[in-house]
Amino acid sequence: MSEKINKILLKIKKEYVVINQFNPRDENTILDKLAKKIISENCMVEFNPTNLTDKNAVKLGKKLKQLCAEFNSLLIIKDRIDIALAINSNGVILDRNSIDIYDAKNILGEHFIIGYSITESENIENILAQNIDFLKSQQNINVNIPIFDNYDAL
Predict the structure, then answer these.
(1) For residue 22, pLDDT beyond 90
(2) What is the pTM of this model?
(3) What is the spatial distance between Cα 112 and Cα 90, in angstroms, rounded to a whole number?
(4) Please, are residues 53 and 89 in contact by the beta-carbon 8 Å criterion?
């Protein structure tokens, strides 16, 4: 998908779904729950592969990417640029403990969306100066990029 299409899709997404602490035994249950959530074609899905082996993360990531593509939803990978590239996700979401935003952009290229999960102690201007595409925040922030301030965890 082109950068332009990704950015257009990003602007219309209303729901943010997080897949966290995944157990491979629950794969079908998670995929079924996600399908019910994204059927409205109005979601961003964040996949956090932290507790999976790289092999299982790529295997599940490919299934999530296919499911998201079927429902015109975006798949964003938490922190793992290598997994994002391996499955050709729509982008990544970073935070203050992640790889630098500038480095992520250089590695991923322009067609990937890059989001940032910001905390109250971080300087919003410094983050925005790095031209991120969206924010995930619990704060009340008024900026000119999409902000996801509420999310459902599967």
Answers:
(1) no
(2) 0.90
(3) 5
(4) no
